């Protein structure tokens, strides 16, 4: 099940308490940068958030013949975005606990 399908199921079930959404996660991203290390299949994505904090994600393939820059960037960004979910989830829970 992908992120959009999960979001639709949440909405269908009427789960409307304060929560994060894919749109909110994307809205925290100010800048995305990618780097492939020379001579490797390692792609790193650095996402700079609106507050200046950065998160990184990586992707690599075992066989150099399978390397594809576009796919590497997609996977690395997805891995970086997962870290934002955790950070924003903690922040939301903290706000709810002190409200």
Q: How do the strands and helices of this protein lay out in sequence?
A:
Blueprint: H1 3-12, H2 22-27, E1 29-36, E2 43-49, E3 54-59, H3 69-98
In short:
By secondary structure, the chain is an alpha+beta fold. The chain is built from 3 helices and 3 strands; from the N terminus they run H-H-E-E-E-H.
Q: What is the first-to-last residue Cα distance?
A: 33 Å
Known CATH architecture: 2-Layer Sandwich
Q: What is the name of the CATH class?
A: Alpha Beta
What is the global morphology? globular
What name does the CATH topology carry?
A: Double Stranded RNA Binding Domain
Instruction: Count all strands and give the number.
Output: 3
Q: Work out the helix count.
A: 3
Average pLDDT figure: 95
In which order are the strands of the major sheet placed? 1-2-3
The radius of gyration is 16 Å
> Spans of 5+ residues with little confidence (pLDDT < 50)?
none
Question: Could you characterize the architecture of this molecule?
Answer:
- The chain has 99 residues and is an alpha+beta fold.
- It has a single domain (21-98), classed as Double Stranded RNA Binding Domain, CATH 3.30.160.
- The chain is 46% helix and 21% strand.
- The protein contains three helices and three strands; from the N terminus they run ααβββα.
- It has helices at 3-12, 22-27, 69-98, and strands at 29-36, 43-49, 54-59.
- A three-stranded antiparallel sheet has the order 1-2-3.
- It is globular.
- The N and C termini lie far apart (33 Å).
- The model has no long low-confidence stretch (mean pLDDT 95).
């Amino acid at each position: 099940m992908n992120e959009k399908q999960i979001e639709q199921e949440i909405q269908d079930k009427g789960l409307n308490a304060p929560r994060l959404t894919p749109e909110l996660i994307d809205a925290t991203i100010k800048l995305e940068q990618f780097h492939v290390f020379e001579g490797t299949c390692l792609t790193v994505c650095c996402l700079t958030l609106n507050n200046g904090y950065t998160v990184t994600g990586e992707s690599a393939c075992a066989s150099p013949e399978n390397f594809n820059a576009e796919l590497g960037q997609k996977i690395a960004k997805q891995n970086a975005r997962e870290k934002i979910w955790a950070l924003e989830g903690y922040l939301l829970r903290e706000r709810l606990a002190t409200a």
